[in-house]
Amino acid sequence: MTNSPTRPTTMRTSVLLKQQELTIEERPVPTVDADEVLVKVAAVGVCGSDVHYYREGRIGDFIVDAPLVLGHELSGTIVGVGVDVDPARIGERVAVEPQRPCRLCRECRAGRYNLCSKMEFYATPPIDGAFCGYVTIQTEFAHAIGDSVSFEAAALLEPLSVAIASVRKAQIVPGSSILIAGAGPIGIITAQTARAFGASEIIVSDLIAAKRERALKFGATRVIDPVAEDPAALNLDVNAFIDASGSARAVDSGIRSVRPAGTVVLVGLGSPEMILPVSHIQNLEITVTGIFRYVDTWPTAIHLVASGQVDLDSLVTGKFDLEHVAEALDSDRNDDSLKSIVYPN
Length: 345
Ligand SMILES: [Zn+2]
Ligand SMILES: [Zn+2]
What we know:
Layout: E1 2-3, E2 10-18, E3 21-28, E4 36-45, H1 48-56, E5 58-59, E6 62-63, E7 73-81, E8 93-96, E9 99-100, H2 106-109, E10 120-121, E11 134-138, E12 142-144, H3 151-155, H4 157-169, E13 177-181, H5 185-196, E14 201-205, H6 209-217, E15 222-224, E16 238-243, H7 248-255, E17 258-266, H8 278-283, E18 287-290, H9 298-306, E19 316-321, H10 325-330, E20 339-343
Parallel strand pairs: 13-14, 13-16, 14-15, 16-17, 17-18, 19-20
Antiparallel strand pairs: 1-7, 2-3, 4-7, 4-11, 4-20, 5-6, 7-8, 8-12, 9-10
Helix pairs in contact: 4-5, 4-9
The site of one zinc ion has 6 residues, from helix 4.
């Protein structure tokens, strides 16, 4: 491995020991495989999935039954490279795509590496994440960000990638209309992404007035309070519906809001099972699908941010050091909070 001269041998790491119990450990800096780079972590976004692991100790079948390092939305600087990687990469500012697919299985070979059954994804048991000083990643998943993108925005290219994958699935093209349920981080970033993809009508529903107000600042052309008016009763007739709420009621009324042959993309994590209006889906030939992470979204994400079409810096509402990861994970209890960033170094 090629190292920059200043690299230490140990690093501070925030470790989730079990549900609701975090500690700081001094751990060895990871060694780099031939095809990997070593990244000194600059900024890590707090994601809803980190919060689930912290509070409930699990997400569905993924259970925290051994100490786990959280954090999968990250940026940093390359400080070391494996023997097969060009040493000229040392010093590059990068956004990390936090997944290691096997590259060999049927899904990988078909270009759907997000569906690789051997996937190792950061901060998903048993794979450690990035609330620590240094991480390794295969070189092609360390994406150069150039000088105009902040480390905070670069970390948030991960949720932007979720939005890009969703908007692609929803087949948004210039002039499309879209309904988005939920004005949390994913809903807000999806609204901006739909605008960047050319959607002309971007309707966002949320139960909370302050979140609806914020959606109007980030791309929504209209907002709906689903308690005051059921979207399904408004004849919205949109091309696509993206659920970023996980609410069964929102999913039902969203499906009833799309036009014939429209598309529904389920992104929000809520109840694992829901009742769907099947005859409506049949009669209108509506496509209902989900997304699982993303494939090849970072180049698009970097362009959308560097060109000013998507603003991620303004979404940051909290900044924390490694000693305050618990506070960062709890910051979503405040309605004004949108994205918290942890700075491990
Ligand atoms: Zn995330
Ligand atoms: Zn694979």
